[in-house]
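Database export, one record per block. Field names are fixed; values are copied verbatim from the stored entry.
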Amino acid sequence: MPRKAKNISTNYKICACCKGAAAKYKWCKNSLGYFRATIAPKTRLFLHHFVLQQHVIKFKNKDVDHIDRDPSNNNIKNLRVVRHQINSYNRGLFKNNTSGFKGVGYVKHNLKNPWVARIKVNGVLIHLGYFKSKEEASKCYDNKLLQQMEE
């Protein structure tokens, strides 16, 4: 006897052309907020992958990024296929962030320029410099980020 799916939900955003096909499955929200359906024993399908498949967009060996960072928004206009590194740049701030800016931290040992900017590229942490204000450090981080996304 098949198990009953828990937390069945239709509280997701999806483009109109995919609604009919998506209605055939029971979508459950996981702990990270992503919707998934079990389509066969031990085979799960994420809703954002389903939407791309419906639009015949290939994403093998790539990540699917929710542009607005909302995992329940699976509208095709909100999804993009990117390399893993680019997808990681679209993350929010960490819980322990004290500067309010991504890639910017405060260092006590440098009183003249106490704000430091760093970015991780291909698993390597790159020091971008020390700055007088966190806004300057953030601007440097943002410039380097844009440069990395263009490459």
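Remark 1: The domain at 96-150 is CATH 3.30.730 (GCC-box Binding Domain).
Remark 2: The two ends are 52 Å apart (CA to CA).
End of record.
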